[in-house]
Amino acid sequence: MTGRKSSSRKRLRKAFDASPDDSHPRSKSRHQDMSATIIEVALNGPWTRKHQPKIPVAADEIVSEAIVCCKAGASVVHFHAYDAKTGDQTTDVALIESIIAGIRDEVDALVYPAIRYMSNAEAIHASSGWRRYEHLAALGRGRKLDWLIVDPGSTNLVRYSDTSLEDAVVDINSPAAIKHGLNIAAEYGLNPTMAIYDPGYLRLAHHLVGRTTRLKTPMYRFMFSEQLTFGFPPRSYALRAYLELYRELAISAPWMVAGLGTNVLPIVAEAVVMGGHVRAGLEDFDLGTETGNLALVEATAKAIEAAGGKVASTAEARRILA
User: Per its Swiss-Prot or TrEMBL entry, what cofactor is needed (predicted)?
Assistant: First the structure.
């Protein structure tokens, strides 16, 4: 680390740790004290090219972009599989397996796909947990996965620009479905990655994680947005609020900053100094952007290093989640 970067990191830490007592929200867990910062790349998301025109859709596109992003610093890859003919999302296990294999043939990366999209009527059904995770359970049995999505709550996903509410949805995850996902993660030895859209998500996640035996370390993902109405925008006060709740709940698991329809780069420096990790990519970034996944990963790596941090290798990412 250069003297300039070290001084920058010290100034940031002094500013963020200015509290006169030990009640400041900076976590002191062994996970957050790790010096390396994980970059996850979320390659495409559920948007389709209607809302995010630069996303990779075909399997070879997803594989190719994952590889170059990993070579640029990403150690975790998340993707949504698409039917190349229809342009719709799919949970076809063979297709997902081929994408994962294509990535791992070229780079060492932690890889995980999306859960099943469900209508509101399906999501509130008693069998929703089984149906949402059926393809992921099959992949878990085949030892194809590293992480597993478990979204611990429900929220309205509404874009400010969608004045007709034509594309507005309610993202529903029932408590039973959430627990089902955690049970699958425990059964197959997967790290749950848990999107935190508002503080209630974190409280429920912590409650259920503590009641799931043999569960590996979760990664909590603080979700921010500028273009959608949920939760907080990516601001320092918002990150501090989540970390204060972290402290109150005595959570020791690692966390990262992420979002939907937003740019989290303005809070990356603070996240690095506070011991967090960062998600980048077109699933999260401003909708309609002409920026690509590689540029977003490169910008994230640069921001981490500018804050005095070090981009984690895949081996380091595994140790952080051990």
Answer: Zn(2+)
Cα–Cα distances (Å) from 315 to 107, 285, 318, in that order, read: 12, 26, 5
Using left for φ > 0, alpha for ψ between -120 and 50, and beta otherwise, residue 253 falls in beta
Tens-place pLDDT, residues 156-172: 999 999 999 999 999 99
Non-local CB neighbours of 96 within 8 Å, separated by 6+ positions:
81, 113, 135, 139, 144
Does the residue 20 lie in any domain? no
User: What does the block give as tokens for 1?
Assistant: 């680390």
Q: With both helix axes pointing from N to C terminus, report the angle between 236-249 and 199-209 in degrees, rounded to the nearest 10.
A: 30
Residue 80 identity: H
- Which domain does 286 fall in, by range? 3-14+27-320
In a domain, 85, yes or no: yes
The number of distinct structural domains making up the chain is: 1
Q: Is residue 21 situated within a structural domain?
A: no
Distance CA 252, CA 221 (A): 14
Q: How many CB atoms lie within 10 A of CB 215?
A: 20
The string of pLDDT tens digits covering residues 220-260 is 999 999 999 999 999 999 999 999 999 999 999 999 999 99
pLDDT at 268 over 50: yes
pTM: 0.90
pLDDT in tens, 62-82: 999 999 999 999 999 999 999
Please tell me the number of Cα atoms within 13 Å of 259 on its side-chain side.
Answer: 26
Question: Is 22 within the bounds of a domain?
Answer: no
Crossing angle (nearest 10°) for helices 293-306 and 3-16: 80
Q: What is the layout of strands, in order, in the sheet containing 110-113? A: 110-113, 76-79, 39-42, 277-280, 255-259, 219-224, 191-196, 147-149
